[in-house]
Amino acid sequence: MELKNKRVLVVGLGKSGIAAALFLRKQGARVTVSDTRSAVALAKEIPGLLDAGVMVESGGHGLLTFRRQDLIVISPGVPLDTPEVAQAIGYGVPVIGELELASRFLKGRIVAITGSNGKTTTTTLIGKIFADAGQPALVGGNIGTPVIDLAPSSTEESLDVLEVSSFQLETIEAFHPWIALVLNITPDHLDRHGSFENYAAMKTRITENQQASDYLILNAEDKPTQMVAAKTKAQIYWFSPRRPIKQGAFVHGESVLFLAKEGGKPEPVMPVAEIPLRGAHNVENVLAAVCAARLAGIPAETIRASVASFKAVEHRLEFVRCLQGVDYFNDSKATNVDAAIKAIEAFPAGIHLILGGKDKNSDYSVLSPLLRERVKAVYTIGSAAEKIERELSGVVKMVGAGTIDVAVREANRAAVPGDVVLLAPACSSFDQFENYEHRGRTFRQVVNALGQ
């Protein structure tokens, strides 16, 4: 992709937007960035961009800025129907995302992981297995490191392990994973995609450029995920925690097995009891990682050792502390209802649940049966609190806390030894926090300050 002296506009100055702008500048492009936030709000970002020779447009998007470009690179948080972006597309200006841009400069084979839940844990685990096996591996994407930042280090020998979101997949063109994983597809980001069908279609795009020499790993117990199988040329492998399958990874009895070829003999990988992560959903994540690792040629014994020594990823059912017999868990990454369900299912009962944040057009009523069964009280926070309280009225005790610090203190007063205080918000964080990490850190800080 020739970029020297090309006029390129980067839209959105999040982490990936800044990384893309700096990379493009190093490639000799004439780069402009545009963000709706004010210059004051971008005070930390602007000086470094100007020093690199990047022009900055802040406080809104100019229509002429968008039309006078050879290429536009949009950040994941910028929808394609943003008026200025839509107009540029209408004028024939090429529009791609940072993932697509980066993929054209990655030299290694790509292992890409998507799904509504479990992406970060699975991505991190696959990266660890590869590293433990001595396989050069780079890990990035939606997990926190922009994909474009991996490009300078990517070699023909490396495996580029990428967590990819529906937002990133929305703007791909030639993005081509050697191994693609779709962990699950449940309602999420409906405020952005408009419908579950549109959201699922974005997830499906992960396989659209795959060929017969590639691999697609799918969840045999997730119906929307199963539908992806009809839309690929790749070789399909499955994973299931419930039953033997014809090709892939599964649980049988007390063991994780891998079947490399239909009709072959299953290979023992590890006892289920050695999986150190809490929750049935994490068994699925491990099975998906086993599939990817075996297809990449990693021996079963290496996989077993890597999984057994794996630590829970920050903000994903992360144990914070035990105080007077009450355990506190941070699952701030539970940014949709299905993720909250999985978090609640990880504990038998006695849960004090913190719910809320910015609503994503979710249906919280589906939580009702599980709340009745396992939750003592719900503590609502953020802008979605009123909707959550309305949809779950009469199901369980509701406490309108408003903020995390109030929710934690109220739960601390009510909890008794053996109970669990769980942050699993089922919402995004952008009403009160910069991101889910900021929310999770705040929860940890408040919990660790209890009793002081």
Question: How would you sum up this structure, described in words?
Answer:
The protein contains 17 helices and 20 strands. It has 452 residues and is an alpha/beta fold. The protein has 3 domains: 87 residues, 3-Layer(aba) Sandwich (Rossmann fold), CATH 3.40.50; 209 residues, UDP-N-acetylmuramoyl-L-alanine:D-glutamate ligase, CATH 3.40.1190.10; 132 residues, Alpha-Beta Complex (Protein-Tyrosine Phosphatase, Chain A). A 9-stranded mixed β-sheet has the order 7-8-6-9-10-11-12-13-14. A 6-stranded mixed β-sheet has the order 15-16-20-17-18-19, with helices on both faces. Strands 3-2-1-4-5 form a 5-stranded parallel β-sheet, with helices on both faces. A hairpin with a 2-residue loop joins strand 12 and strand 13. Helix 6 crosses helix 11, helix 6 packs across helix 12 and helix 16 crosses helix 17. The longest helix has 16 residues. The protein is globular, with a radius of gyration of 23 Å. The mean pLDDT is 95.
Radius of gyration: 23 Å
CATH superfamily heading of the largest domain: Mur-like, catalytic domain
What is the CATH topology descriptor of the largest domain? UDP-N-acetylmuramoyl-L-alanine:D-glutamate ligase
The order of strands across the largest sheet is: 7-8-6-9-10-11-12-13-14
Percentage of residues in strands: 15-25%
CATH architecture of the largest domain: 3-Layer(aba) Sandwich
Number of structural domains = 3
Helical percentage: 25-40%
CATH level-1 class of the largest domain: Alpha Beta
Report the mean per-residue pLDDT as an integer. Answer: 95
Low-pLDDT stretches: none
Report the strand count: 20
In DSSP terms (H or I, runs of 4 or more residues), the helix count works out at 17
Largest sheet: 9 strands, mixed
**Termini distance?**
57 Å
Structural class: alpha/beta
Q: Sum up the overall morphology in one term.
A: globular
